[in-house]
Amino acid sequence: MLQSNIVLYIAVLAAIVVGAVIIKKITSCFVKSIILLLVIVALAVYFYLATS
Length: 52
Hints:
Elements: H1 2-26, H2 29-51
Helix pairs in contact: 1-2
């Protein structure tokens, strides 16, 4: 159980990093900040729901 939570957490962190790099290369600063914030919130909600 704990092992799968760690793997899920690592996957979420990897998705945030990859998403941040892609968004940084594509969009302007303001739009990038909003999209990155939405992605982080969405992944945090998913992680919370997946572990509860």
